[in-house]
Design goal:
About 35% of the residues lie in helices and about 20% in strands. The chain has helices spanning about 15-20, 25-30, 40-45, 50-65, 105-120, 160-180; strands at about 5-10, 65-75, 80-85, 85-90, 120-130, 135-140.
Amino acid sequence: MQYKKRSRQVTISDPRAAAVFTRSPLRRVLLQFSQQPRSVSEVASELAIDLKKLHHTVTKLCQLGLIEVVEVRKRAGRAIKLYQCTAERYYIPSTVAPEAFSRGLSLELQAAIVRDSAATIEAMEFWLSGEGRVSGRVVERRGARSAPLDSWRILRLSASQAKLLKTELLKVLDRFEANIGVSGEVYLVHTGMARRLDQSGATDNAKPRTTG
């Protein structure tokens, strides 16, 4: 069957629609209708989501103009509606977005780190080096599952070094994402870097001392 041709790109002007992309549960539901028309019951069965709850979410996404009904299949009883995203891509100006797009995932990751740390970490150990650097390590509980990764670095970088580091980090993430299989557990992985503007007072890692 030939369905209605979708828009190639839609610009979002409603903050409520933009908020869908900042909230993981809503965004995950939206993505289920991005490739081809699907029914609510089909998605609910595949994702093991309560049908009534999912239907409410789909209705909300329709009202926001993010998905639409593209076919109604008549049958005995209630007809089956097939939904699909209204566009291949959505353009969201930063002035419309209610919050950072990563905020929801950041909160989820922080909560997961706290949860897993409490179950796997016995203590933290810190020590000072002669060069004025602070080093540390996680002391894991014996027999516990591997502790989550929550590693921070405070680096002094030139503009070119910062650009190179960003490129290399993204390459690592892209390599693992390209090799994702159907087995295994789902991990939240976050890599971030930004200039630290407040450098007043003592710094976490001192500049190397010069001799002479």
